[in-house]
């Protein structure tokens, strides 16, 4: 009943638009499926071609459906918490690194609710790692249960824009993304200040106005 009341509070067109809610509000929703995904990242001093600063390694993955998304997945009834569900998914998708690396409540960032096509909540987490830890995840991901099936491969997000004005982040943003993962990526880059706002705006504009 609580769920029906909540659902009816929003007019038809409002229900189509995903909403940001607090974790507490999200956890009170009944009959919604909860999913958790995480942006893992690490600072780097490496330069592409010896001159373009890479700045951060940010991990996403190519999914079985040809879309890009973050590692993670649905939380099951048997998971004791959102973090338990996410750690279970990370072990399946990224492999043995997540026997030791653990996501905790400190890594929680935001929750978004959608009503259509199905009622669901996506919880977004972020975790800063060392470059060595990220490289170890990349190597060990070949030994993950889901490698080659649900996960086609772990990919790095290029944060730079090349001289042609499209290569790098603008081209990456032109890919197909699952669910709200593209807005999660932009939110993560913004809120963690991995890029400046003007750099993000330029990359979005260039991705939408590719003349090449
Ligand atoms: O990266 C993501 N960000 C937001 N939502 C996502 C992301 N990846 C998938 N999704 C959506 C799609 C589904 O509605 C759920 C769960 O999908 P998935 O991760 O494929 O779940 P399983 O691995 O099958 O448990 O979240």
TrEMBL record:
EC number: 3.6.1.64
Enzyme class: hydrolase
UniProt keyword Lipid metabolism, yes or no: no
GO MF assignments: 5'-(N(7)-methylguanosine 5'-triphospho)-[mRNA] hydrolase activity; IDP phosphatase activity; phosphodiesterase decapping endonuclease activity; snoRNA binding
Assigned GO CC terms: nucleolus; nucleoplasm
Localization terms from the record: Nucleus, Nucleolus; Nucleus, Nucleoplasm
Reactions catalysed according to its record: a 5'-end (N(7)-methyl 5'-triphosphoguanosine)-ribonucleoside in mRNA + H2O = N(7)-methyl-GDP + a 5'-end phospho-ribonucleoside in mRNA + 2 H(+); IDP + H2O = IMP + phosphate + H(+); dIDP + H2O = dIMP + phosphate + H(+)
Alphabetized UniProt keyword annotations: Nucleotide metabolism, Nucleus, RNA-binding
Cross-referenced Pfam families: Nudt16-like
Cofactors demanded by this protein: Co(2+)
Gene3D superfamilies: Nucleoside Triphosphate Pyrophosphohydrolase (3.90.79.10)
Main location per the UniProt record: nucleus
PROSITE patterns for the chain: NUDIX
Residue ranges occupied by any Nudix hydrolase domain in the UniProt entry: 31-187
Gene Ontology BP terms: mRNA catabolic process; nucleotide metabolic process; sno(s)RNA catabolic process
Family affiliation: Belongs to the Nudix hydrolase family. NUDT16 subfamily.
Protein's name in the database: U8 snoRNA-decapping enzyme
Organism, scientific name: Pyxicephalus adspersus (African bullfrog)
């Amino acid at each position: 009943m609580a769920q029906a009341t909540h659902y009816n509070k929003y007019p038809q067109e409002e229900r189509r638009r995903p909403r940001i809610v607090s974790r507490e509000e999200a956890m009170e929703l009944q009959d919604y499926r909860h999913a958790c995904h995480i942006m893992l990242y690490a600072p780097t001093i490496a330069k592409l071609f010896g001159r373009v600063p890479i700045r951060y390694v940010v991990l996403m993955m190519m999914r079985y459906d040809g879309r890009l998304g973050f590692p993670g997945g649905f939380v099951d009834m048997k998971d004791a918490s959102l973090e338990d569900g996410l750690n279970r998914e990370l072990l399946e998708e990224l492999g043995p690194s997540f026997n030791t690396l653990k996501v905790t409540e400190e890594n929680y960032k935001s929750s978004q609710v959608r009503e259509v096509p199905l009622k669901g909540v996506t919880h977004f987490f972020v975790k800063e790692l060392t470059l060595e830890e990220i490289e170890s995840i990349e190597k060990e991901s070949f030994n993950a249960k889901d490698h080659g099936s649900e996960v086609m491969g772990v990919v790095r997000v290029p944060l730079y824009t090349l001289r042609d004005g499209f290569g790098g982040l603008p081209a990456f943003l032109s890919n197909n993304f699952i669910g709200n993962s593209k807005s999660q990526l932009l939110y993560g880059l913004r809120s963690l200040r991995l890029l400046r706002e003007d750099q993000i705006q330029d990359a979005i504009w260039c991705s939408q106005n590719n003349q090449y």
